UniProtKB/TrEMBL annotation:
Organism domain of life: Bacteria
Transmembrane segments: 12-30, 42-64, 76-98
Protein name: Phosphohydrolase
Organism: Hydrogenophaga electricum
Domain Calcineurin-like phosphoesterase: 115-280
PANTHER family tied to this protein: PHOSPHODIESTERASE YAEI (PTHR31302:SF31), TRANSMEMBRANE PROTEIN WITH METALLOPHOSPHOESTERASE DOMAIN-RELATED (PTHR31302)
Keyword entries, A-Z: Hydrolase, Membrane, Metal-binding, Transmembrane, Transmembrane helix
Amino acid sequence: MVTPVLVWSRRLFWAAMVLTLAVSLWDYGGRWHTPGHYLRNLVMLGLYWGPRIAGPFLLGWLVLRVCQTTGWRRLVPTLGAGFVLMGLWASLVEPLWLRERTTMVSGAPVGASPLRLALVADLHWGLFVREGDLRRLVARLNALDVDAVLVAGDWVHEPPLDLRGGLAPLAALRHPVYGVLGNHDTGAPGPALTEPLREALRAHGVRLIDGERVTIRGWELVGLSDLWGGRPRQDIRQLWPAPAAMTAEGPPRLALFHQPDTQDLLPPGAVFLAMAGHTHGGQLWIPGFSPWWLRHTNSASGRWNGLYDTPAGRLLVTPGVGLVGVPARLGVRPTIDLLELRP
């Protein structure tokens, strides 16, 4: 039996869907867009705003249907309500449930100073990650006792045109910030915003080190450009002219790049520790499917989250803090990796 309450709950849901479309169209304007993917971006904005505007009404409608039906007829709305509830969790809760993960990496060369680093990746400010999210991330990073913050690429994802204004929260970071660009920052895929992005990050105190080396408390940090949108092989030829980089002379070496598979381009023993992102740890973790998907799309080497031993040295892959593709995380919380490097 269809009651007036059920009818009105359904009407409210469809009204919320119309509002979702209107808000998505409003939000669509004034952004950098990947050429040829304009409709895709509108759909993704609908996926972003839908759970926030229409999601609670859909859940309420389904719960009312469960309450007002009996027997086997309850099965479909019950399953639907469970699916919607999981979707709301993945869209509205887990992406904001930022965690800190500490990894101690011992065995540094004798005489090397202890070093504490905060590693993040895949901020993806733009479609799904907004200015308020950046402010919350900066507040968490500022509360940490670290020597530097490292950002392993993919700063943006179809962001507003005003890069300098939108990325302004980064200027409040109290630690030195070093970073590299990722594939979404270099048009692989993504809009042609690399140079404006460089300028915006530089204006807020971020030092990009693609193809460069810097020194942090006696450690040498080397940055490599992106595997798809840069020239990491050329960077490596310039920065590792010798067959092996780890020698008794010189400071211990760290490397920062976006994609984990860049590690396989390095010579044996090249680094004490390398750091990467790109994989989001799967972002939506589906046992069985997610490892297959990651291996065929993000990391052929099978390195997508955690610490790995490789011929070139150890590699830490962070699951990142942002969102791409769909505005949701499930089973893979956004993560700030705290690295403690010790002798």
